[in-house]
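YM 10:42: DUF72 domain-containing protein sequence, as discussed on the call
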Amino acid sequence: MDFGKVADSQIKDVDFTLPQDGLQTSKTLLKGKPAKKPEFYIGCAKWGRKEWLNMIYPPKTKEADFLDQYVKHFNSIELNAVFYSIPNAELIKKWKAKAEDNSSNSFIFCPKFSRTISHIKRLKDAEVPTDLFLASISEFGQYLGPCFLQLGDNFTPKSLPVLEEYLKYLPIDLAVFVELRHEGWFLEEANRSQVFDMLAKLNKGAVITDASGRRDCVHMELTIPEIFIRFVGNGSAHQDSDFARIDDWVVRIKEWLDKGLEKVYFFLHQHDEKDTPILADYTIKQFNKHLGSKIPDINFITKTGELF
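YM 10:58: structure's back
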């Protein structure tokens, strides 16, 4: 993931302090009390990483079987694979079967809306591809988590009516988080207030993207009592910094849980995905220790080739 990437030499100068909660967050959690059983999902953006062979995938695992192995280690995935083309129902059924056969059956896929809808059509006259997309992902059944709609860097606040109209077109019971990227959504208070208020009224979530070079996207606005965080780490050379950032998120999430946060979706990215399982494992351990998430640790492969 290259979004928000900065040069290695600049990382030390980035202020990774998490901003104060936004106004919409205080409204969303105003009357909240701790949920009895909050849900936690931690995962990556893709499963097809050859670098994970002999790390979390057995050495001779074929690429066609990577998903079979992935679902043994994680309880969710931010499904970017369906962004590049609208998937057919048979492919979704195939992926679902792999989750059924190899996971604890609590696994969920969080599909990204296809770019035909978000970046080519730009949400206009997108009913046909949207219907095709929704029909296909519905085949996930119990394994379907929330979908996320990523808007392009050039999707500006002027298109707020288009976004609102599109969200109203979607099924009311479809869980959706929206990722905003254009700076205008965050820098101008009027735009910020309007878009997050609209999402709250439509019961749609707002993605928080934590990347080094785009601190404005760490907007800290909760429009529903759920969060969808895309955390972009900087690789093994900056592991201490990334771990400290995870620690800060644990503190903030704990505050939100105490106020009524119900679900946490936390997806790990890195510009070089080789060490993402290590970052994910640290995240899982900290969530379990401080938030009571009870997510199984990742089983890494030893030098003898056995999982531990």
